[in-house]
Amino acid sequence: MDINKKAVTDALRYMRVPPDAHTPELIRTVEKAFEKLETYITPRVIWGEFSIVHFDGGIKLAYTDIYSRDIERLTSRSSACVLMAATLGAEVDRQIALAQKRDMLDGIALDACASVRIDLYCDEVMNLEMSQILKPNEFLTSRFSPGYGDFNLSFVEDILTILNAAKRIGLSITSTYMMTPVKSVTALSGIAQRPNYFNNNAE
Predict the structure, then answer these.
(1) Residue 196: left if φ>0, alpha if ψ -120 to 50, beta else—which one?
(2) What whole-number distance in Å separates Cα of residue 49 and Cα of residue 14?
(3) 67 CB-near residues (< 8 Å, 6+ apart)
(4) Which residues sit opposite 65 in a β-bridge?
(5) Is the Cα torsion angle 22, 25, 30, 35 positive or negative in sign?
(6) Which element (helix H / strand E) includes 186?
(7) At a CB cut-off of 8 Å and minimum separation 6, what does 144 contact?
C-alpha cells in the first residue's frame, strides 16, 4: 500500500488529533504504523449480488426485511444490491492489543491506521471486483454499513449469515454485534440505474 497524505490525515482524524497538532513526529508515528500494519494484515472479502424489492420504509433482501429509510433512499434507483463483508484478519487485532501495552500512542496509531486500511480495502474491492458485474447503464452507490443512520446494527448478523461469512472468511459476530476480527466491515451498496443513459447514448 502506498502511504499517501490522505491516508495519514484520515488516521490522525480517527485519533482525534486536530489539524494544527499534526507535527512531523506524529505524522511519522502514523506512517510507521501503516508500514507495520502491512506486515500483519491478511485481507479477505466475500460479496454477492442480490435482487431487492422496495416497500414503504425499507427493502426486502433474500429472506430478510430491512427496515431503514436510509437504505430505501440509497437504493431508490436500484432493483439489486451488493452485500459485502471484509476483514483484515485476526492478527491485526492481536498486534493492536500488544502495541497498546508497549506504547499507548503506537497502539492508538496502529488501531487508527487499521480502520483506514479496511476502508481502503473495501474501496479496492468495489472498484476492481464489483465494478466488473455492472452494465453500462449501472453504477454502485456509496456503501452503507449497519450502524449508520437508521440502518440497525443488528443487520450485521443478517449480512454475515446471507454471505456465510463465518465459514468463508472466518468473520463472526458477538451477542453485542461486535465483529471478530474487529477490523472488519459489512456493507450494502445499491446497483443503481444511471438516469437518461439510453437517451444520452442513442445512435
Answers:
(1) left
(2) 31
(3) 57, 58, 152
(4) 60
(5) positive
(6) strand 184-193
(7) 70, 71, 74, 151, 187, 188, 189
Burial of 134 (0-12, 13-18, 19+ CB in 10 A): middle
How far is C-alpha 189 from the geometric centre of its chain's CA atoms?
A: 10
pLDDT tens profile 48-82: 999 999 999 999 998 899 999 999 999 999 999 99
Q: What is the grid cell recorded at 21?
A: 497538532
The DSSP secondary structure of 43-102, one letter per residue, reads: -EEEEEEEEEEEETTEEEETTEEEE-HHHHHHTTTEEEEEEEEEE--HHHHHHHHHHHHH
Q: Compute φ and ψ for 81, nearest 5 degrees.
A: -145, 170
pTM given for the model: 0.91
The total number of residues written for the chain in this structure = 203
Q: Report how far apart, in Å, the C-alpha atoms of 111 and of each of 2, 37, 61, 167, 182 are.
A: 18, 9, 33, 26, 10
Domain 5-194 in CATH 3.40.640.10? The answer is no
* Mean of the per-residue pLDDT values of the chain: 93
User: Rg for the chain (alpha carbons), in Å?
Assistant: 19
Domain ranges of the chain: 5-194
Confidence of residue 198 (pLDDT cuts 50, 70, 90): very low
Burial state string for 47-71 with b = 16 or more CB within 10 A and e = fewer than 16 = beebebeeeeebbebbeeebebeeb
At 202 the pLDDT is 43
Per-residue pLDDT, 196: 67
